[in-house]
Design a protein that fits this description.
Blueprint: H1 11-42, H2 46-73, H3 76-99, H4 106-131, H5 134-186, H6 205-218, H7 220-239, H8 243-250, H9 258-279, H10 285-305, H11 309-336, H12 343-371, H13 374-392
Length: 415
Amino acid sequence: MAIDWRILQNRFLRTLILSRLCVQVGVWVRSIAVLMFVMDKTGGDPFAVALISAAEVAPIFLFSIIGGMAADQFRSKRMMVLCDFLSGLSVLAVMAAMMSGAWKAVFFATLFSSVLSQFSEPASMKLYKQHVPPHQMQSSLALYQTLMAVFMLAGPLVGTMVYQVYGVDMSLAVMAGAFLLSAFVLSFLPREKEGAAAAGPEPKISREVLEGVRYVWRVPVLRWLGAVFMMVGLAMGLLDPIGVFIVTEQLGLPKEDMQWLMMSAGAGMVVGGLVTMSMAGRLRTQTMLTGGLLMLAISLGVVGYSTSVPLTLGARFLGGLCMPLIMSGINTIMIQHTNERYIGRANGVLSLAYMGTMTLAVGLSSHLMEMMSLSALMELATGLLMIGVLLSLPLAKHLVPPGTGEKPSGKWKRV
């Protein structure tokens, strides 16, 4: 499996990956510490635990498009540095509040960090388009997904260890230090191209947001990609609440064994990221996306009917294996086929489409569980993914082969 590590000669990629390493350490230590601290303080109150999830998810609804608009209008490098710096300072403020006895301020650490990430992430995508050549796009995004997968495996372990050994104060201090270090690292990003920030009159939020929605609708690649996002969001939303019931009811295991299914999927993501990196440039992005969705649908279909622990673990590994293919394909398509002036807003619109459908499906899943079996619900999610596979097929005639410089066929045009 030959991986082209020469992509790390790219200064932008080296700097961004080092920064994201710092951020991932901070995020996982924060997530585990806040969860355990709140459970200890409230005696495991479900409402308090739900507030943590709300603090992580709500900013996506409220700020994804606004953050994308800001990324399109202002200097991306400056925005990324400022977001991580403010995240670090906000945690120090939370620590000061907690020392005075206001322990509920810990929710603010999660909320403020999640809000700022909605501004930082689209800015990083804009810089990706500026500084990463098309022929390196697939492999660099696969490397990024592999990094995320490694932290899915190691993050909970590191976060738990820091909290259990040193407590919540040290956990928050680690988070603050990680974000401040990330801000320092990001200051070494290469300078943006001239004219990277949008010029013109002061932006009006409503007008800019509507312009972003219209842009996504006008470009066939993004329109089809949005439809795929919605199908995947519906499928993932149906599955999210029932994972523990697959373990307890279908496999007959204690709920604590859920960790083995998560670790199997995480290991698959690591391997999938390395495989995707090794095949970068030899696979069309549409093949990566469609093939990944098909593999994920098959894995879910197997999990839905399997009562064998080894078979279920293998299917979960396959599901994890295909995730880097899906995410690298989606991000490559979006970055390569979106005009730089709209890339932040396009990212915000697509993120909102995914999260909106996912949240809708999460709300429906509890009612559906009363009406159908776990296997039937899993097969429903599999069917939605198969619809996503079909919706991804029309992308083929619109995509630019990576690194070729060719114009896409079909009626697509850059707007």
